[in-house]
Amino acid sequence: MKNVFAILSFIAGTLTASAQDWPNIKRYQEANSKLAAPAAGQKRVVYMGDSITDFWIVNDSTFFAANNYIDRGISGQTTGQMLLRFRQDVINLKPAVVVILAGINDIAENNGPSKIEDVAGNIFSMAELARVHHIKVVLSSVLPANKFPWRPSIIPTEKVTILNNMLKDYAAKNNMVYLDYFTAMADDKRGLPANLSKDGVHPNLEGYKIMAPLAKAAIAKALAKK
C-alpha cells in the first residue's frame, strides 16, 4: 500500500509541475541564462519548434555546431505552448533570424482539438512578435504526414496541406520566407516515406540531410530581405 501511495504522490507531483509550467519554459532556462549576447555583426539563428526540431540536434548535432544555430525545440509541443515561451526562447536571445516549424502536434490533438485557423494564428503571432523585435522570420511548412502512430484515429493529410497553404500565403503577403520541406519530402500519398522516417512523422538522419540545405538557403534569403 505504501508503494501505491508513493507512486500516486509522484504522479500527482509531476502533473502539478507540468500544469505550473505548461509551456515548459524551464526546459531551456539555464541554457538561455548562459548564452552570451551575439557579438557585433553576428547573425544568430534560433530554431523554434516541436520534436522535429528537438530531435534534429540529436540526429545531426554537427549541423547546429558548424553553423552556430541554436535549437529550441521541445518534443510534443503545440503552437500555443511555443507562443507562450517565444519571448524566453527566441526574443530574449536576440537572433537575427528565427526558423519556426510548428503545427503537427496541434493537428494530432496533443492538447485537444484545435481549429486549423487557430493553429495558423498562433504561428502568425510568433512571426509578428519576431518582426516587432527586428527578427527575420522563416516560416517552415509542416512536414508531410498521413498517420500518427500515437493517435491512429486521426488522419492528418488534408489538415497538413491546408495549414501549409495558409503559411505560404501569409509569408508571401508579409515579406517573410516560406521554407517548403513538404514538397521535397512527400511521397505520392502526401506522407513521409520509409526511407526518410521510421514512424511517418519524425525524420531520420536522411530526412534531416534533406532539410538542412533547404533551411540554410531560407535563412540566407531571410537575411537578405530588407
Report on the structure:
The protein has 226 residues and is α/β, with parallel strands linked by helices. It contains ten helices and five strands; from the N terminus they run H-H-E-H-H-E-H-E-H-H-E-H-E-H-H. The chain has a five-stranded parallel beta sheet with strand order 2-1-3-4-5, with helices on both faces. Helix 3 (51-59) packs across helix 4, helix 5 packs parallel to helix 7 (116-132) and helix 7 runs parallel beside helix 8 (157-173).
Brief summary:
The protein is an alpha/beta fold and 226 residues long. 51% of the residues lie in helices and 10% in strands. The chain has one domain: SGNH hydrolase (Rossmann fold, 3-Layer(aba) Sandwich).
Question: Could you outline the blueprint of secondary structure elements for this entry?
Answer:
Blueprint: H1 2-20, H2 29-34, E1 45-49, H3 51-59, H4 61-67, E2 69-73, H5 79-89, E3 97-101, H6 104-107, H7 116-132, E4 136-140, H8 157-173, E5 177-179, H9 181-185, H10 205-224
Parallel strand pairs: 1-2, 1-3, 3-4, 4-5
Helix pairs in contact: 3-4, 5-7, 7-8
